[in-house]
Each structure stands twice: as C-alpha cells, then as structure tokens.
Specification:
heterodimer; A: mainly alpha; two-stranded antiparallel sheet; B: alpha+beta; three-stranded antiparallel beta sheet; 1 helix; about 15% helix; about 35% strand
Chain lengths: ~270, ~130
C-alpha cells in the first residue's frame, strides 16, 4: 500500500501540464482586466532597510498613476484617430459671443453642452452663417420646420428660455435663439433614438439624426459599421450623397470616423448630461 | 485518474464559453423582410415630415415613435384596416399607415439587396449589400 514514486512523479507532471493549460485559457481574460495608465513622474524607488555606511540617503519623490479611461458609448464601430477633444468643441463655441449662454441653456435643458457644441462646429465652425442655398440658416444650419420644432420642444421643457429668444423668423439669424432650437432638436433626437431601441444615444448617433433626419438617424445608429452608408440613406441619389459629403463606397463606420475626426471624444459622449 | 478527469472537465467548462462567444453570428430571419418608406429625404432641401408609428392598427391608437427609413415587416406583410405591422429592433410591434410603405430599394444602387437578421443578443436589424 506504500506510495509508488514513479506514479507520484507522473501525477505531478500531469498537474503541471493541466495547470499550464488552465492559465493559457485564463490569460486573455486577465489581459482584458488591465487598465492603461501613464506615470506622472519617477517610479517608486527601492528603499533599503539598512543603508550602507557613508552612502547618503537619496529620496526621489515618485509619480502618481493617471489611468486612461476606457471608451464609452454605443460601440458603433468608430476607431478613427481623433484630432479634437470634447473640450475643443466646447472652447470653439465658448469663443463666440453667444457661447456662454448657449452652454447654460443646454445645461438647463439637461443636454450635454458638448453635443450642442459638436453640432455647431460641424455645421459652421460655430462662426459664419454658411447658408447652403437650400433654406438651411444660421450657425446651426437649421431648416425653418426643424427650427420651429426644436424651439417648441425646448420651450416646453423650460418656458423660462422664452425671455432669451428673438421671436419670428428673425430668430433663425440669432445664434442664441438658434442654439435653443438646436438644443430642442437634439432632445428630440435623444427621445426618438431611445424609442428605436438605442440605449443612451451618443453624440454621433444624434449627428446622424441631425444631419439626415429622423427616419435615417435611427437607421444609421443601428447599422453595422461595414454597411455601405448609401444603402442606409437609400432615398438619396449619388449626387445628393456627394452634396452631403458622402464618398462612393463609404461605409457607416468610415462616416462615423470622419465625424469623430472633427469633434473628437465628444462623439462617444451621451447626448444628455 | 478521477482527479485528472475533474481537472480536465474544469478546463473545458472554462474554455468552451470563451470560444463560443466569438462563434455566434447574426442569422437571417426569413419570416421578416425589408420594406421602405415611400417619402424619405432625398438629401436636398427641407426634410419630409416623419412617419408616425402607432401602438395598434385601430383608429385613435397612441403614437409610439417614428418609422425608420428601412422597415422590418412580416413576410408576407400583415395589414389591418390600412395599417401595416412593423417590427421594431427589440422585437416589439408597431403599426404605420400602409400608404407610406413601398418596396425597399436604394436610389444610388438599384442592385442592393436587404435582409432582416437577428443579432446574438436577440434583437433585430436590417442589413444590405
């Protein structure tokens, strides 16, 4: 009944082999748990318990870890490089005389100010009234129907904003009034995208809605990134696609990357604050 | 030997789910098909008004949303009292006036084909090529 040393060695070998297999399977999940970080300063120094006689004690203050947050949002497939950050779009809007009030009004409506800033950056650089000759006006390039609709939504949510608006069609040329209307339109975008089953719609989801309208907006947000965007915007001719900045063969993912390159990290933020 | 078997069993139990998660793919749902709205924005000028989705086919049914440009409908379509049943991405149903519905097509690419797929998470969406 004594133990057999040969069998015992075989067991140990098997155990080591199986343990190695288990670690191999678990390794990917362990890797996923890692968080990217930068070190602000020198690494932690090894301090000897007993210092050598005659050697001066040198202490180097160590840096602190700055973890890099993982991306958030709907994961719709954008992985393009970004040339701007969400603070860039906010700063662009803040540089305008009406920027501060636009941000305050957006916040009063529960809207993420970066969503509003991203809209005016893309539409006009938040500056010139670029007028496309088809009726879209102002720094937010809104058509009259969308302007009225957005204004009504914003005023219904916060009637106190009525004191800031320029009444009538002149309001479309007043950036503060148009910013309120655009905020209301983005609130509608959030509601409609949510209704279509998109949880916590992002700024880039809202961009599709704002640019291409309600029917296409949710369709774009739900589309596979590899799908040709012309198939999603199925009512547009080749020339109309070109007028809207869509290249032949462009995919939904490429369009998203193109938008992201203009508005940076704001693209993946929530529409609402 | 029984310890080895238990150990191997544990390894398989851990590794199989990891492998199969990546193996799941979307599948075409033949009982649904794509259709389109007859009046979507053509890319120029003001946008047409959105098409309302209703909770039911009956008059006075509550508005529950806005129709997408590409609709998921039953194959063949279900029409009751002039309204067609559309399926939402979460699998729920809504109804729109069938006068707004036409065959699915892409103006810039008449050869495009659309199908309805079910995603691994159970939701539906349309895809085209």
């Amino acid at each position: 009944m004594g133990s057999n040393p040969i069998v015992g060695k075989s067991w140990r070998k098997r155990f080591i082999v199986h343990a190695a297999m288990l670690l191999t399977f678990l390794a990917p999940s362990l890797a996923l748990a890692q968080v990217s970080a930068t070190l602000d300063g020198a690494p932690v120094q090894v301090t000897p318990y007993v210092s050598e006689p005659g050697v001066p004690t040198i202490s180097i203050p160590h840096g602190t870890l700055n973890t890099i947050p993982n991306g958030s949002g709907t994961g719709t497939g954008t992985d393009g490089s970004t040339s701007a950050s969400s603070s860039d779009v906010l700063e662009t809007m803040l540089a305008q005389s009406w920027g501060t009030s636009a941000i305050a009004d957006a916040q009063a409506l529960g809207l993420n100010p970066s969503a509003l800033a991203a809209t005016c950056v893309i539409e006009s650089g938040c500056g010139a009234d670029v007028g496309d000759g088809t009726g879209a006006q102002g720094v937010f390039q809104m058509y009259p129907a969308a302007f009225q609709e957005g204004l009504q939504t914003a005023l219904a949510a916060d009637p106190s904003l009525a004191s800031e608006i320029v009444a009538g069609s002149e309001g479309m040329d007043d950036p503060t009034t148009e910013a309120i209307a655009a905020s209301g339109y983005l609130m509608e975008a959030n509601e409609n995208l949510s209704s279509a089953g998109i949880s916590d719609p992002s700024v880039i989801d809202a961009r599709g809605y704002y640019n291409f309208g309600p029917a296409y907006g949710a369709q774009l947000a739900l589309a596979d990134p590899s799908e040709p965007i012309a198939n999603v915007l199925n009512g547009m001719s080749q020339s109309a696609l070109a007028q809207n900045g869509i290249s032949p063969g462009e995919t939904v993912g490429q369009w998203q990357a193109s938008v992201t390159s203009k508005i940076g990290s704001a693209a993946n933020q929530s529409i609402l604050s | 030997m029984s310890i080895v078997k238990v150990f191997l069993g544990a390894v398989i139990c851990i590794s199989l789910p990891l492998a199969t998660v990546h193996a799941q793919e979307e599948s075409v749902v033949p009982s649904y098909k794509c259709m389109g709205l007859d009046n979507v924005w053509n890319g120029q000028g003001p946008m047409p008004p959105p098409v309302t989705e209703y909770a039911g086919p009956y008059p006075g049914a509550a508005s529950v949303g806005i129709a997408l440009s590409t609709l998921i409908v039953d194959n063949p379509p279900t029409v009751v009292d002039g309204r067609m049943r559309v399926i939402r991405p979460n699998g729920g149903a809504a109804w729109i006036d069938s006068s707004h519905v036409t065959t699915w097509h892409v103006v810039s690419n008449p050869e495009a084909v659309c199908s309805v797929v079910r995603l691994p998470n159970g939701s539906l969406r349309t895809t085209s090529h």
